[in-house]
Amino acid sequence: MRYYSLEKYINLFDGYRKVFKIDNHNLMLLQLDGVRYLIESNCPHREYPLSSSDVEGAELVCPQHGYRFDIQTGQLTHFSEEPCRNLRRFELVDRDNDIGVMLEG
Predict the structure, then answer these.
(1) CA of residue 93 relative to chain centroid, distance
(2) Alpha-carbon span 86 to 43, nearest angstrom
(3) Is residue 92 packed enough to be buried (19+ CB in 10 Å), middle (13-18) or exposed (0-12)?
(4) Calpha distance 46→40 (Å, rounded)
(5) pLDDT in tens, 96-105
(6) Cα gap 85→77, rounded to integer Å
(7) Which parts of 1-91 fold into alpha helices (H)?
(8) Domain residues of the chain, as ranges?
(9) Contact indicator for 24, 41 with CB cutoff of 8 Å
């Protein structure tokens, strides 16, 4: 496992959203109501980018087909076509003044 720095804490704010490509991982860091989440940045249904997705309550809504995922657990909560797997979430790691993630290389 290797540590990858994503962002400095000073740059984070509610509404923050940024996509990262690290090796074969496509990740999106977001902050909502003071809580930070690191999830895969493409919808598991058809790989549509979630960077422009809406957040409604505790759910992330894919703009392509309206699939909904619980932002805290990644669980699929609604689908409009065939079901897909849950959204992958990643544990964030605090290091000095940065927030990052541990990933297999």
Answers:
(1) 14
(2) 9
(3) middle
(4) 13
(5) 999 999 998 6
(6) 11
(7) none
(8) 2-103
(9) no
Structure pTM?
Answer: 0.93
Longest dimension (CA), the chain: 44
What Cα–Cα distance (Å) separates residue 97 from each residue in 5, 10, 11, 34, 43? 10, 8, 10, 16, 30
Name the token pair of 82: 């065939």
pLDDT tens profile 54-88: 999 999 999 999 999 999 999 999 999 999 999 99
Q: Which CATH number fits domain 2-103: 1.20.1070.10, 2.60.120.10, 1.10.3720.10, 2.102.10.10?
A: 2.102.10.10
Q: Compute how many other C-beta atoms are within 10 angstroms of the C-beta atom of residue 100.
A: 20
